[in-house]
Amino acid sequence: MKLQFGELNITPTVENLLDELGYTVADLEVAIADHKSPCDGEPSVYVGT
Predict the structure, then answer these.
(1) HSE of 22, CA atoms in CB hemisphere, 13 A
(2) What is the pLDDT along the chain (49 residues), one digit of tens a residue?
(3) On the CB side of 11, how many CA atoms lie within 13 Å of its CA?
(4) Taking the model in full, what pTM does it have?
């Protein structure tokens, strides 16, 4: 999966982890698109707790 600053390999392990959390690869793609920085070339920082 192409990200703004690299790539994310969707392996079977990643798919299983998403499934355990109640998500799909399509859900992940939507979330990434929704949170993409509008500033190309500038990194976005997301802090989680």
Answers:
(1) 0
(2) 877 677 888 999 999 999 999 999 999 989 888 877 676 666 667 777 6
(3) 2
(4) 0.62
Confidence (pLDDT) at 6: 78
Residue of 24, 23, 29 lying closest to 8 (CA atoms):
29
Pairing status of strand 6-7 against strand 2-3: antiparallel
The three-state DSSP-derived secondary structure of the chain is CEECCEECCCCHHHHHHHHHCCCCHHHHHHHHHHCCCCCCCCCCCCCCC
Enter the tokens of residue 43.
Answer: 């990194």
